[in-house]
Design a protein that fits this description.
With 78 residues, the protein is of the alpha+beta class. The protein has a three-stranded antiparallel β-sheet, with no helix packed on it. A two-stranded antiparallel sheet has the order 4-5. The radius of gyration is 14 Å and the shape is globular.
């Protein structure tokens, strides 16, 4: 079963599409992506963070080391 994630780094306008079935990441072309991406971009420009269907997200500048910033979303917490 294919599964996709859309990721956007804070401070940039770029969005990335992650295809887990094909182990592939590609930059989304906002013009070609349609109204969903327009809605996401508008929300991001207004400071809204969207998290849906993600249980953990890790941002780091390296693959090793202790400089990992972690954000954990607990679906049981409202």
């Amino acid at each position: 079963m294919e599964k996709y994630f859309i990721i956007g780094e804070a401070g940039t306008d770029e969005l990335w599409l992650v295809n887990t079935a094909e182990n592939r990441v590609e930059k989304l072309n906002s013009a070609a992506a349609g109204s969903v991406i327009e809605t996401i971009n508008t929300a991001r420009k207004n400071g809204i963070t969207l998290i849906k269907g993600v249980s953990i997200a890790i941002v780091t500048n390296s693959r090793t080391g202790a400089d990992v910033k972690m954000s954990i979303t607990d679906p049981t917490v409202k």
